[in-house]
What we know:
Order of helices and strands of chain B: EHEHEHHHHEEHEEEEEEEHH
Number of domains of chain A: 3
Distance between the termini of chain A: 95 Å
Helix content of chain B: 25-40%
Strand content of chain B: 15-25%
Oligomer: heterodimer
Strand content of chain A: 15-25%
Distance between the termini of chain B: 33 Å
CATH topology of the largest domain in chain A: Transferase(Phosphotransferase), domain 1
CATH superfamily of chain B: Metallo-dependent phosphatases
CATH superfamily of the largest domain in chain A: Transferase(Phosphotransferase) domain 1
Shape of chain A: globular
Helix content of chain A: 25-40%
Amino acid sequence: MKLLEAGTGIDGFIVGQCLHAGGMAHIYEVTYADSGRNTGFPMAMKVPRMTGGDGAETIVGFEVEHQMLQVLSGPHVPRFVAAGDLTRVPYLVMEYIEGRPLQDRLDQAARERVRPTPEEIARVGAAMAAAAHSLHQQDAVHLDLKPGNVMIRPDGRAVLLDFGLSWHAHYPDLMAEEMRVAVGSPPWMAPEQVVGVRGDPRSDVFAIGVMLYEMATGELPFGDPQTRGGLRQRLWMEPPPPRVLAPQTPDWLQDVILRCLEPEAQQRYGSAAQLAFDLSNPDQVHVGERGLRTRRTSWTVHLKRWLKAAGQHYKPSPLPSAQIDLAPIVMVAVPWKDASDATLFSLRRACARSLGVRAGARLACVTVVAPGDMDRADERMSEVQVHRWQLDRLRQWALGLDLETHSASFHVLESGDVPDALVRYARANGVSLMILGAATHGLKLQRLVATVPVRVAMEAPCSVMLVKQTLPFERLADAQAPPA
Amino acid sequence: MKLALLSDLHANRHALQACLAHARAHSASQYAFLGDLVGYGAEPGAVLDTVMEMAAEGAWVIRGNHDDAALAPVANSDRADHAGASWTAQRLTSPQREFLAGLPLKQTHDFMLLVHASANKPERWTYVEDAKRAADSLDFAGDATHVFGGHVHEQRLFFQGLVGKTMAFEPTPGVPVPVPRHRRWLATVGSVGQPRDGRSEAMYALFDTETLALTFMRVPYDHTAAARAIRAAGLPESNAARLTLGR
């Protein structure tokens, strides 16, 4: 379709100026012809370029995006307004997103020859991962994440655009027919997409990894292959470690990036929420061999991996929401005042059980200190000292949990309002399950004051497990006491 | 129009009533019965009376293999549809018999084709259970873009790609699936009276012809009462037991 002139009317909309002329579609500003109608947000119209010579992919992409926009919700996708009939005038009207495309930021970095700081990379990466996670929770996978499709809002949140290649568990996969060729954008496409597996949320994790690599180094980890053989390289090839290309990259960031880029999906983050968690807590990233690598992988290792990849079978994934359930973030609130040994013991047992049934779970141990617990004047009670002391206490509490196979992190929050601090933390970090002591002594007062567990359970964005102490420690102690 | 598509009722009054109530609650404005009104179940008379009443008010009704068998049961046949057919035949009134005899094998309404089994030789009662057979049925659907049927007792949606390949999709109950008219679709709507996918809930589908959205439904009903009725009628125990197990 050729460029529409400003002022053209279509189905009750008035087309404004062209905002973007891409290879697949034109994007226009658009308003209602009837000035009485108002969605309360600015609108954009996307008109696919469907001329006679175009392949079926453009049409199918339009259908898929229409399907997706109608059902996806939340702050990370543009709101859907209307669609034009495919057989007449195909168009999609959606929310116009104020913000800056990530591609813009990358272009600026290339122009000015200044890489974004690790802090900025982590911030943008966490925003993208949170957006992808919100999609996965809705049983959808984007499958075409790239800097041109990610918008960063002025408040820092990410919005994902262009759902033409996306996949949704509850709708027919219209792209299935096109799978003779790998569907996606070559530089960002995950290995499983290359062999035709669609619907794994960890494919989006891979694409985010490519973007993080781009931000850190200015290079594409696997280039921009144009052939099938070139695309298949990522099934076995390890990209040069970011620190080889950009020595200023911190080891934790390299670890995060290379974990996203693992050829096997199960070696990557189990969920985008876990990726967001690491990017939001750099000091808690467990840096392994991946993060410390400063040399390219040798050809002998690549040969071995090539042989392995030749025999590799990619399995279709279960429901995205089921996959991310296997890799939850479990948060435990460890009290430090009025907490009996029995309570702490029972909490640890409950954590062990929860981690035990979820192979990909990670544990966030959290405690809250009140500003009043610290004293600037007293060196032993200074903020730094109290934090250090609490972190040590949390680490000691976690001894005995299986932290070999589950990663754990430790956090001291500062707030006078304990329930509020816990709920905020859970919300900000995409926590799937919160475990806390039931504080039995508080339950009697429940009608008078809202106790910590009750308030947390009411306000938490996730499931909350209230743990009662399991062992009658007092009775054991009594039994040991000498007879009166 | 909101079209309720119900197939394979199999003389299960309890399931039929639950599905009709569900469809009414979802503002169904037109009803289509896609065959096998009788067979297996204990209440062919009551089910037929309901369907005949609705047909008189404009509901569309198609003939199935069990309806055929009830009109001309073959004694000692090893075919499932003939096994209980003489039991059913003895219980039909003559208006009910006439009604069944007058049912068409397939029917077209606007862009929709209704047929119990395959549109290709419907009288052969082919099970449309894979993409190949769905493609075959679609080949004989004429100008219809949407083919609705039953017979397989499972809910499935087949769709044609733009270069003609037919693919299968396992729908999620309760989720409206857009089925636009520039593609061709074939849905097996499942069975009201005898689900066979391991779940006991009755199945039907609701099609909104304005928004072109098709929703597959699962409706819990009193399957123990339906099973009790089968036992009380002296029909085979397996006919009763399978309702609970959904097979």
